[in-house]
Structure formats: structure tokens, C-alpha cells
């Protein structure tokens, strides 16, 4: 509280000007920063929007972005084309071998990590958009964005799960910004567990994101919607259920965009992105079965689910399989893996479309610790099991993870707001260009990004 003595020395702004004193207004007050909202619709192929009529889709909000802003006809992704490496490239502008998030699940041939994923921001080895924003004094928020546990985000509700039960909510309350979830849940109801892949759960996540926009006013907000990906894995891309899911998400995006525009005072940029495309599948290939037969994986018994020892093991990523040798100098192991790979590639029934050797794999910027990468044919997905048939019917209706040059793996990028040209096609872009483009709109510097500013002159 100001004392009476202090008050006597305060003059209205007009009085200061009348005395001829210079009044300096900070540049930020003269030109308010944009608010940036990035919404990821996991698994959104660009042709869902670009060819909406052909698919009979009613998605007016997403379609409106084609005339209201700029858009890519396709986004060439990273190796592998799966969620966690892709989302990290979206916020760093570099390939997985540089940013450190190499797959969804960490490499764990003996299963000691109990199916743990790359949840933790401490694994990211390069600056992110939220780091750049923090350095510029911009407050940030994130809802369900991958690899954000422990991130330096002002208001963070990370994506994290363990059992998929209600106890996961306790985990999220412990891992989120202290006190944030209980306060928001008093207003909005229970926050959905991360493994809930329903459209209703995404609508709830978007409500939490909207409340953060209106009550906290972050300059950067990230939101990850998972329902489309969940349904595509279940029934395949462009299935009737997947189309209904995207129509529901279109309404979710519309509501959040309206909230963002009100909260940002007309200076909000909204980017709708995705991480990868999708292909339908009907068969699965279990490379670990072949590695076991070659004596490279050891199991304690015929019924054991996980190996007890390993010399080389498969690291699955949807439509691709990396093979990692424990000792890369062991010529016997390398020869045995070479033999396994050659046999798999020679038999068309196994579903191997291409074998990427170590040197070529480095150029792709993925799986730096692997010596071989098998990209599968359309219709095949990788299984991690080490027992049973080598090839079997798939347990899922669709997947991703194939090499990024597979056209169906293209991701999406739509952007609208101040400083964004309307009705402009950007053509096909590199996923690494998303982060530097958003950084420029946010007026921050993202050190080390490999992409280019898509909207620059």
C-alpha cells in the first residue's frame, strides 16, 4: 500500500506531460505481442481437409482455414513418423537424432521400464518454443502435449499415463503445475486420463485449454488432441468412425479458436497441425521372432513374454522396425542380423518394403543407435512380441511410422491470424519449418532450428 507521503509525489500522466517530461512507453505496450495457439490433431492427414467433399466430411472450421490463412498441401515428417518424435520436431525445428526423442516408447529390450514412453522434457536436448518464449518473458501453457513432464512451461498439464485408471489423475495432479489441475477441475469437472482417446475427452481437454487462455492469458498455448489417432488405429483412416470423430473435433477446434480470439484481443495466431498420416493395416510382422530364432534374443521359457538377455533386438515404430545391437563391434552379431534382414526382405509375404542401412539411416536423422531399419509395406504393422508366428493378422485397423517419403504419412499444417497471408498454399513443406515459422510470429528466436520461416519474404 502507498503511504500518504508517497502519494503526494505521484502525478497523473497528463500532468507529467504538461511539465514537459518525457514519457517512455515500452515497445511491447505500443505493439502488443501476438498470442500463439498450436492445436495438434493427432493423425490428421491433409487430404481429410483438402478433399473433404470426396470423403463426405462436414468440417467447416478446418475447411475455412484454407481461405482464412495459409496451409501446406502436405508436411514431410521425421523418422519415425510417430507421435512423440514428430511433436518434438514441431516445437524444436530439428530431427529426432538431434532433439533426442527417438520413438514413442524408449528402447527397452528386456522390458524393465514397463512400456514407458518418452514422457520427460529433460530428454529433449535442444531449445523448444516454450524455452524461447520463457527467455522473452512470455508466459506459456500446455495441455496434453507430448514430452512435457517437468517442462519449463508456466501452466503445464502434461501427457502421461501408467495404468489408464482413475489413479492416473493423481499422477497428473502431481506432475502438472502445482495446484493447477485441482483449481481448474473445481470449475470444469474431472480432467480426462491421458489414455482416454475419445472425442469427449478431447473436448474436455480443449475446455481446460480455453480456460487457461481466458484466465491466465498465456502468450503461447499448446494442445494435443488424440481422438482421431485413437479411432484410426482402431478402425483405420477414413473409416466411418474416423470421419465422425474428425467432425466432432472440428467443433472442438471452432470453440477453442473463438475463445482464443477473444482472449487475445484480435491478435491471436492459430496453427492447426498434425504429427503424421495413416495407412490401413491387416497384417503384423514380429521381427523379434526371427531374432530369437537366430539366437540374438534369449527367453527364460517358451511362455515368457519378455527376453531375459539380448544381443540384438527390434525397436518397433508402427510401420517400421529398427534393429539395435548391444555391441556394435561384434561382427558375429552383425552377420547374424544381416542374415535375418536379408531373409525378411527376400520373402514378400513378410511385408518388408525397404531396408535402410546404417549410413542412410543417419542421413534420415532417426534411430541413431540402430544399425538397420526395416520400412514395411502398406498393410503391415510391426509387432514387438518375440513368440508366435512371424506374420499374423493385425490387432489394429491402421498405423503410421513408415518412412517419411511414403505419401500417406504426410502431416498437416494450417495457420491463420495477423501476419498470415489468406488463401495461400505453401505447397509441401518440411516439418522442421513449423517451429521457426511460429517462433517468428511469436517474435522470439529459436536457436538451432533447421527449418525456414514459411511466411517470410
- The general outline is globular
The number of domains is: 2
Q: Strand portion, in percent?
A: 15-25%
Helices and strands: which structural class? alpha/beta
Spatial order of the strands forming the largest sheet: 5-4-6-1-7-18-2-19
Fourth-tier CATH superfamily name of the largest domain: Alkaline Phosphatase, subunit A
From the alpha-carbon coordinates, what is the Rg to the nearest angstrom?
A: 24 Å
Head-to-tail CA distance between termini = 50 Å
Percentage of residues assigned to helices: 25-40%
CATH class of the largest domain: Alpha Beta
- Return the CATH architecture of the largest domain: 3-Layer(aba) Sandwich
**How many E strands?**
20
Topology (SSEs and partners):
Blueprint lengths: L3 H4 L5 H6 L8 H4 L4 E7 L5 H4 L9 H9 L1 E2 L2 E3 L6 H10 L3 H4 L29 H7 L4 E4 L11 E3 L9 H9 L4 H9 L10 H17 L4 E6 L1 H9 L4 H24 L4 E6 L5 E7 L1 H7 L3 E2 L10 E2 L1 E5 L3 E6 L5 H16 L5 E6 H7 L7 E5 L2 E4 L8 E3 L4 E2 L13 E4 L7 E2 L2 E3 L3 H8 L16
Parallel strand pairs: 1-6, 1-7, 2-19, 3-20, 4-5, 4-6, 8-15
Antiparallel strand pairs: 2-18, 7-18, 8-16, 8-17, 9-10, 11-12, 12-14, 13-14
Helix pairs in contact: 11-13, 12-13
Amino acid at each position: 500500500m502507498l503511504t500518504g507521503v508517497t502519494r503526494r509525489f505521484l502525478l497523473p500522466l497528463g500532468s507529467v506531460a504538461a511539465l514537459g517530461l518525457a514519457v517512455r512507453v515500452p515497445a511491447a505496450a505500443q505493439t502488443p505481442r501476438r498470442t500463439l495457439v498450436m492445436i495438434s490433431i493427432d493423425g490428421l492427414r491433409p487430404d481429410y481437409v483438402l478433399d473433404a467433399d470426396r470423403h463426405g466430411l462436414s468440417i467447416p472450421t478446418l475447411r475455412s482455414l484454407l481461405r482464412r490463412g495459409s496451409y501446406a498441401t502436405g508436411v514431410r515428417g521425421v523418422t519415425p513418423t510417430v507421435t512423440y518424435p514428430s511433436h518434438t520436431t514441431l516445437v524444436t525445428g530439428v530431427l529426432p537424432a538431434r532433439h533426442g526423442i527417438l520413438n514413442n516408447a524408449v528402447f527397452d529390450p528386456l522390458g524393465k521400464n514397463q512400456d514407458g514412453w518418452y514422457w520427460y522434457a529433460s530428454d529433449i536436448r535442444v531449445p523448444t518454443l516454450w524455452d524461447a518464449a520463457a527467455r522473452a518473458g512470455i508466459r506459456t501453457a500446455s495441455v496434453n502435449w507430448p514430452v512435457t513432464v517437468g517442462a519449463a512451461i508456466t501452466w503445464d498439464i502434461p501427457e502421461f499415463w501408467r495404468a489408464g485408471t482413475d489413479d492416473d489423475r493423481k499422477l497428473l495432479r502431481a506432475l502438472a503445475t502445482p495446484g493447477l489441475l485441482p483449481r481448474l477441475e473445481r470449475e470444469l469437472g474431472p480432467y480426462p486420463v491421458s489414455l482416454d482417446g475419445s472425442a469427449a475427452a478431447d473436448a474436455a481437454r480443449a475446455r481446460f485449454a480455453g480456460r487457461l487462455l481466458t484466465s491466465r492469458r498465456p502468450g503461447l498455448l499448446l494442445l494435443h488432441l488424440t481422438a482421431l489417432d485413437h479411432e484410426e488405429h482402431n478402425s483405420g483412416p477414413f473409416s466411418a468412425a474416423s470421419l465422425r470423430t474428425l467432425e466432432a473435433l472440428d467443433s472442438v477446434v471452432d470453440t477453442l479458436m473463438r475463445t482464443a480470439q477473444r482472449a487475445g484481443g484480435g491478435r491471436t495466431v492459430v496453427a492447426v497441425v498434425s504429427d503424421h498420416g495413416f495407412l490401413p493395416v491387416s497384417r503384423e510382422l514380429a521381427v523379434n521372432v526371427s531374432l530369437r530364432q537366430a539366437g540374438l534374443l534369449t527367453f527364460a521359457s517358451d511362455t515368457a513374454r519378455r527376453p531375459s538377455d539380448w544381443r540384438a533386438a527390434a525397436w518397433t515404430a508402427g510401420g517400421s522396425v529398427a534393429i539395435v545391437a548391444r555391441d556394435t563391434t561384434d561382427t558375429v552379431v552383425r552377420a547374424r542380423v544381416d542374415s535375418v534382414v536379408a531373409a525378411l526382405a527376400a520373402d514378400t509375404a513378410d511385408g518388408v518394403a525397404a531396408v535402410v542401412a546404417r549410413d542412410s539411416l543417419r542421413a534420415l536423422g532417426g534411430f541413431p543407435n540402430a544399425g538397420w531399419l526395416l520400412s514395411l509395406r502398406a498393410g503391415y504393422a510391426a509387432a514387438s512380441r518375440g513368440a508366435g508366428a512371424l506374420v499374423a493378422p493385425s490387432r489394429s485397423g491402421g498405423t503410421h511410422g513408415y518412412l517419411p517419403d511414403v505419401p500417406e504419412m504426410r502431416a498437416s499444417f494450417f495457420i491463420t491470424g495477423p501476419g498470415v497471408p489468406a488463401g495461400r498454399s505453401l505447397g509441401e513443406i518440411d516439418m522442421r519449418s513449423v517451429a521457426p515459422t511460429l517462433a517468428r510470429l511469436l517474435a522470439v528466436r529459436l536457436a538451432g532450428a533447421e527449418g525456414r520461416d514459411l511466411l517470410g519474404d
